[in-house]
Structure formats: C-alpha cells, structure tokens
Amino acid sequence: MEHTTLTLDTADGPMHAYRAAPDGTRRLPALLVLQEAFGVNHHIKNVCQRLAEHGYVALAPELFHRTGHGVELGYTDMSQVMPHFSRLTNDGIAMDVAAGLAALRADPHVDESRIGVIGFCVGGFATFLAAERTDAAAFVAFYGGGILRPRPGIALEPLIEHADQIHRPILLVFGGQDQSIPAEDVKAIGDRLASLGKAHTIVTLPEGGHGFA
C-alpha cells in the first residue's frame, strides 16, 4: 500500500491531504474522505487505508488548514475543537473539496469517471455540500449535522434549501440514538430529497449514536 501526504493549492493557502492507495499502476476508483471535527487524525487515516485495501485511492484533505496544519484533536475535549470548527464556512469547505477532487482527477492512478465523496460528522455535512456543488459520481454522508438547521456558534449554514442542486446519488447514514440529529430532522431531510425526486437512500442504525462509525 502507498501512503503519503500531498500539498494542494487553494485560494486560502496550501492544504495538506493524506493519500492512501493500493500498490500498482492501474487506474482505480477513488474517494475523497472528509474528516470529522477532530482533524485528519489516526482514525481518518485508518479509514483511508481500509478503503485502499478495498481497491480505492483515498484522499483526506485537512479542512482545518486555515487554522493550522496537521491538526489532530482528541475526542473528549471540545474546547480544543471549537477554535478550528467554528471557523469553517460553506464556501471554504467547497473550495477545499474542489481542490481535493481536482487532485484526484489529476492522479494518474485514478479513473476520473469513478470518483466519490464520503464524510463523517462535519465531513457528512461537507459531503452533502459537495453533492450540491460538485459533479462527483456519488456521495456517502455519515451523521452530518447542520444540514437542516443552523447551530449556535457555528459559521456553517444549513444546506437543505439548496438540495435541488444535487444531481448524483447520495446515501445518508444516521444513528437512531444521535441526540444532535433527531429523527424528525432525518425525516425532514428525506422528505425534501423525495419531493425533489433526488436519487437518495437514508439508513438509520437504531442503536447508533453520533460518531458510531
């Protein structure tokens, strides 16, 4: 397996991205992996490695690059998370996603027609945003908060009003015990996508809490 850290150019400066890929030179499908609120940490790198084991080129951009490079945060102290998380914006994420997708399309080991996006937590939100603003082939969003309604102290803006801009299939995965995304919000998201005729699937794991994956 190959794994390395790339540096991608954005209008807001350089952004590091972790890349994992199977050995070999053949063109493969790829996934842009969008981080949780804790940075491109050991878990996200492990996700990339596991995807590579299944035959994908996986690339995880550091969405916190505007507030620091190599940011890896613990799962228990949100006071360390908020200085980075609260600075994220919809347009900033869209810029980073575009840079990540461009890097995958330029990768000689990637089949340009088979690039998807997968994200967790804030990365799930970012995946829904990517579905609205990019032409990647497919999208998988795990427990993306803030899709339906704004959150205090967070600059990210809800996405549901622009769901008509989604043109590729999207899978949304939620936890039935996730107190931050109640069942009525999941239903509202599903109802909106259904009313627009969008290709989507919603899966709720009854015993799953936020971050269950």
Strand order of the largest sheet: 1-2-4-3-5-6-7-8
Q: Note the total helix count.
A: 5
The helix/strand series, from N terminus to C terminus, equals: EEEHEHHEHEEHE
Shape: globular
Task: Give the total of beta strands.
Answer: 8
- Unreliable residue runs: none
In short:
The protein is of the alpha/beta class and 213 residues long. It contains five helices and eight strands. The mean pLDDT is 96.
Give keywords.
8-stranded mixed sheet, 213 residues, alpha/beta, single chain
Characterization of this structure:
The structure is a single chain. This protein has 213 residues and is of the alpha/beta class. It is built from five helices and eight strands. It has helices at 42-53, 78-85, 90-106, 122-133, 183-195; strands at 2-10, 13-21, 28-34, 57-61, 110-120, 138-142, 170-175, 200-205. The protein has an eight-stranded mixed β-sheet with strand order 1-2-4-3-5-6-7-8. The mean pLDDT is 96.
Please give the structural blueprint.
Blueprint: E1 2-10, E2 13-21, E3 28-34, H1 42-53, E4 57-61, H2 78-85, H3 90-106, E5 110-120, H4 122-133, E6 138-142, E7 170-175, H5 183-195, E8 200-205
Parallel strand pairs: 3-4, 3-5, 5-6, 6-7, 7-8
Antiparallel strand pairs: 1-2, 2-4
Helix pairs in contact: 3-4
